[in-house]
Design goal:
By secondary structure, this protein is mainly alpha-helical. It has one domain. 74% of the residues lie in helices and 0% in strands.
Length: 144
């Protein structure tokens, strides 16, 4: 049985940091902080400056656990409660969804909804509905 950890303060802090970062990126660079768009643009940047901000943002995403380790002296526990095969299949499904949905949860859910974009609101409602159904099926019908 998969146990869900309830971490309201850590989740709130993470949400605030994501909100502040996405607001600052929009304010100073006029860009939306959708993680998949940032990553894709790093492979084909329009300029050196375009690559630089993307590289810094991606480095910040990857080095988060090291920052926690420097502050607390302990690496955060990273648990992946599924097989590598399930992880790869899930990643491929997300990749297809990002392509067809023209964005990811961070681009639509954080930035698009904040701009009251109808397309992003529909996309986010769709993400959430599919997530609820998937979790229900996996936890209650399949018994994962």
């Amino acid at each position: 049985m998969i146990e869900t950890a309830f971490t309201p303060w850590a989740s709130l802090a993470g949400g605030v940091l994501i909100g502040v970062a996405s607001t600052l990126l929009m304010l100073f660079a006029g860009r939306v902080m959708g993680a998949t768009g940032v990553l894709a643009g790093a492979f084909q940047p329009a300029s050196g400056q375009e690559f630089a901000w993307r590289a810094v943002l991606l480095a910040g995403m990857v080095t988060g656990p090291a920052v926690v380790w420097l502050i607390s002296g302990e690496m955060p526990a990273i648990e992946v409660p599924v097989s590598t095969t399930a992880l790869v299949i899930g990643g491929l499904i997300v990749g297809v969804g990002v392509t067809f949905g023209s964005g990811c949860t961070s681009g639509h859910g954080v930035c698009g909804m904040a701009r009251l974009s109808p397309r992003s609101i529909v996309a986010t409602v769709t993400f959430m509905a599919v997530t609820f159904v998937t979790v229900f099926i996996v936890r209650h019908l399949i018994g994962g």
